[in-house]
Write a structure and sequence with these properties.
By secondary structure, this protein is of the alpha/beta class. Helix content is 31%, strand content 16%. It folds into two domains: 205 residues, Rossmann fold (3-Layer(aba) Sandwich), CATH 3.40.50.10860; 113 residues, NAD(P)-binding Rossmann-like Domain (Rossmann fold, 3-Layer(aba) Sandwich), CATH 3.40.50. The radius of gyration is 19 Å and the shape is globular.
Length: 327
């Protein structure tokens, strides 16, 4: 029997919603069945070599409890509650209208087929990983094939082991482009205000400028530095803003996206309303970059079968609400 092993690696990670997204996506695509299982783990590490070691070792020595279930993955409580959450989310066939795309938009950047030579199918056994703080800038080994140049700007957030070698990508920027596109702004002809200078900010600057957009640096705890975006810098007022700094100051722009997300409270309707309000919650970016991981790295052969951004976000909120009832 084959197995997909998925890990979210970094620190802290116990409150991450990425495992829930992985379960929802596997259910949507029907890739977990009688011949293939899904194993999820929280990989609490601060050094990239330890994250790769998890990939080779097969498990973590001291599993952490997932905050959403107060139990570790693989235990009955987490398995049962995760199944309940997925079943509840599966009932959402049409997303809430308040989450729908604004205007006609353009084809999502995560749906653009990558020209790199990735495997053309999913193997029986695969290892997929998302990297978060503080790992995104650490991977510089040429033994790991970068499909999008993210290693050069030190901004890798996704890995895949296909049984023969490691592949990597930095897809935060594609996620930002898709979120802004969903809300009516494409990079070309638009100015993106950028707060922060870490790995996700560099990925965003690269993606936005690569697709014809301009970048206005709005400060932050870390400097963005030079990169392929340097010729696209401007002092024009931004049309949209993404804040990677973790703070929540007020900004003047048509769309403001805060990359961070916290625990939600309230009934399902209240939570959906919160997702539809501005500034945009970080769940928008989380879902968008997760979709990009599937379309660009983990399963590009299924790119046409991926759910829409608003549908997956709606299902995530339903699943998260379901789990909160057992907290």
């Amino acid at each position: 029997m084959g197995e997909i092993r998925y890990g979210i690696a970094g620190s802290p990670i116990t409150h991450s919603l990425s495992p829930l997204l992985m379960a929802l996506m596997c259910d949507h695509l029907g890739i977990v069945n009688r011949t293939r299982s899904l194993k999820i783990e929280l990989v609490d590490v601060s050094i990239i070599s330890d994250a790769l070691a998890w990939g080779y070792a097969g498990s973590v020595p001291n599993p952490l409890e997932w905050a959403l279930t107060q139990a570790v993955f693989g235990k009955f409580r987490t398995t049962a509650l995760l199944e309940k959450a997925v079943i509840a989310a599966r009932e959402v066939k049409i997303p809430a209208s308040t989450l729908g795309a604004k205007g006609e938009g353009s084809p999502l950047f995560s749906r653009t087929k990558n020209s790199n030579v990735l495997p053309t199918r999913m193997f029986d056994d695969e290892i997929w990983m998302n990297l978060t703080h503080p790992l995104k800038h650490q991977l510089d080994s040429e033994a790991v094939v970068s499909i999008d140049g993210s290693r050069e700007i030190k901004s890798i957030n996704a890995l895949r082991w296909d049984g023969k070698g490691w592949w990597s990508a930095g897809l935060d920027g594609a996620g930002v482009c898709d979120v802004m596109n969903h809300h009516g702004y494409v990079p070309e002809g638009s100015v993106l205000g950028l707060v922060g200078g870490g790995g996700a900010a560099r990925s965003t600057a690269k993606a936005w400028s690569q697709h014809g957009g301009l970048i206005c640096i709005l400060g932050g705890r870390r400097e963005l530095g030079d990169g392929p975006w340097s010729k696209s810098l401007t002092e024009q007022s931004p049309d949209v803003i993404v804040n990677f700094d973790g703070t929540t100051p007020s900004f003047e722009a048509d769309i403001v996206l805060h990359a961070a997300y916290g625990q939600m409270e309230g009934a399902l309707e209240e939570r959906i309303d919160a997702m539809a309000s501005t500034p945009l919650d970080g769940r928008w970016l989380l879902v968008a970059q997760h979709l990009a991981c599937w379309g660009q790295l983990w399963a590009p052969e299924r790119i046409d079968d991926l759910p829409s951004l608003d549908l997956l976000l709606n299902r995530l909120v339903v699943a998260e609400t379901t789990l909160s009832q057992y907290a």
